[in-house]
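Homework help board

Subject: predicted structure for assignment chain

Our instructor gave us this sequence and asked us to write out the predicted structure in token form, then describe one feature. I got the tokens but I'm not sure how to describe them. Can anyone check?
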Amino acid sequence: MKKKSTQMLVTIGLLVALHIILSRFLSVNAWNMKIGFAFVAVFVGAYLYGPVAGAIVGGLGDFLGAILFPIGAYFPGFTLNCALTGVVMGLLLYKKQSPLRVVLTVIIDQLGISMWLTPLWISILYGSPYWPLIISRLPQIGIMLVVEIVVTFLMIQIMERIKASQMMAEKEIPADSIKEERKALRKSKIAARQALSEEDRAVKSAFIVDKIIESPEYKEAKNILIYSAIRGEVSLDGLKEYAERDGKTLAYPLVLSANEMTALVPKSADDWTEGFHGIMEPKKETCAELKPEDIDLVICPCTSFDEELGRMGMGAGYYDRYLEKCSGAHIVAVAFECQKADSVMRQEWDKPMEKVFTEEKIYE
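My token output:
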């Protein structure tokens, strides 16, 4: 814990310095307009450590930059803007990245904070009329909307790659042996859950379902993708009764090809058939298809997970590919405590979970 705290403080300090450089030396300033990339430092802080860290990087970076390298008169309102940007990024993008969240973050930052608050501070500072200032800033807002969305998407991809590389380095596992290590972990954790008695699995699964139905993700969802348990997985059969009571639509996955999965909504026992290896699966001919963009909550099975919310599936990557299409969905996983690992050695293509529900606690 001490090592992690020290690392966080050092990282935040470096990001504050980066914010100063980007805002003071690598941005274009013209009266009430500013085109720059200081938001990149704020994003990294919010992405790694949450809204408080994002606010510190933005607020402290702006304050120290104004003191050390002043550009015009200092006004605390501008520092507040930078801190608020960090809070918004942290609340929407910390462990919850999706295209919809990225766009919403930028809209709040530019059409909310930058468009309305910045002209207010300029008006107070220089006595300029408020509404003309807003109109004059519209070209900048339009430019920054596009720039911030594109750069934020790129930064998410870069940060995911860095995080995956760091996890590999911390475990000191050579890249060529990662596959074998993951295969061995998958095998051991499947054996661990199968070693539980049927009664024990049923009781633990019921505890997990109880936690799910009390979660905000479930309460706010209308369309939910779940699964039919196999090989000792957490059973979500108990969720069906609650979903029917609460007016939720439950969909189940169906593998269509080596690289494609879809979500189908069975209505009766006649909508099921015996598929690969005797696994029951919904019939494509009789079931309605639920589009991935219409799914509000995905509850994923897993063979193992870690406290960093990494999830290990069966290795085929069906869920990872499908989850990329679920732009508006909360992504969670369910597992038994015996499936937890120190690290699942998450790869760059592995989608991190927002939460993992077990019979003992909720990891988030």
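Reply (TA_rk): Your tokens look well-formed. For the description, you could write something like this. The chain has two domains: 2-167, 178-363. That's the kind of observation they're looking for.
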